[in-house]
């Protein structure tokens, strides 16, 4: 089906769906044809803050914004977080140790990335619980929670302008490219983007990997016996059960793709989850193989918008899953569990995972 009809038009929604590897790669990276900026709503809430963030901007503006945030969010700074992430993983696993049973999502995979991001942003620990509630509100699109969060960040940003610290918000305020700084709206948009783009995705990466192990016990046995297979396991999990299934674009001009002519200003969904199962790119695409040699998956996107948080997500996953292999031997999903998927066209994961 994917090979015969790589691009499909859905007349009821007007949406153009791209399913094959080459088409998805192009839709994600050819920003002159597939815009991230067009057709985004603008208003007075978290959504509007997002519309002025890097993920909803095309070059040349995108290049400037990305250069600014990259100054404050470097791979080196991310690597320095490893010991703190290990401590948090230890604490979270310690809380369930001996119980014989836990909810892998609620007890572990969900809190970990939220706490890590809160610490990176320098959220005072007294505000941690409210912060968790708001970040849920932003992700589920609850407007009052999102407004509270926007107001909270507004105050925090103001405070850091007067009294900078070692945190990411202070770094973002100080960042400068060609004498330009981020304005208040852009700062707010970036903080909210980190929550929306970084939390649920990382939660799902962790829980989806456990599901991959459950469905491929032989692959689980191999990585337990040989931890050097863990990085390959994480990449294969990203490919096989991609946490982000699709990304949205709008055509800036008429585009030929997959034998179709897509008119200008058409909405397009690039199906990352489908591209990552394309047999033309991945032999035996339906097999979970942690030792796959060439794994050029698109789980973190491609091109100018390539995930800024990929080093952080990979680090969190490797520290967390290494500890899981060490401390939770014979991890098994509770038999008979009916898994409830997260309701979303964009992210793929489950709400709970009793193990
Ligand atoms: C962009 C996936 C974790 C921050 C993206 C994109 C994808 C993605 C597919 C490209 C969007 C596009 O082309 O429009 C993921 C996955 C993650 C993850 C699967 C976890 C497994 C994170 C984390 C952070 C983060 C932990 C930050 C803390 C961002 C940002 C962008 C982005 C800021 C926008 C980059 C730009 O527009 O230049 N992510 N992400 N992500 N991600 Fe991630």
Task: Give the beta-strand count.
Answer: 7
Largest sheet entry: 5 strands, mixed
Q: Which CATH class is shown?
A: Mainly Alpha
The CATH homologous superfamily corresponds to Cytochrome P450
Give the mean pLDDT.
91
Account of the protein in words:
- There is one protein chain.
- The chain has a single domain, classed as Cytochrome p450, CATH 1.10.630.10.
- The mean pLDDT is 91.
- The strands form two sheets. A five-stranded mixed sheet has the order 1-2-7-4-3.
- It is globular.
- A hairpin with a 4-residue loop joins β1 and β2.
- The longest helix is centred in the middle third of the chain and has 32 residues.
- It has 355 residues and is an alpha+beta fold.
- Protoporphyrin IX containing FE binds next to α11 and α15.
Topology overview:
Elements: E1 7-10, E2 15-18, H1 21-29, E3 34-35, H2 46-51, H3 61-72, H4 75-79, H5 82-96, H6 104-109, H7 111-121, H8 128-140, H9 143-162, H10 168-174, H11 184-215, H12 217-225, H13 230-240, E4 246-251, E5 255-257, E6 260-262, E7 267-271, H14 272-275, H15 310-327
Parallel strand pairs: 2-7
Antiparallel strand pairs: 1-2, 3-4, 4-7, 5-6
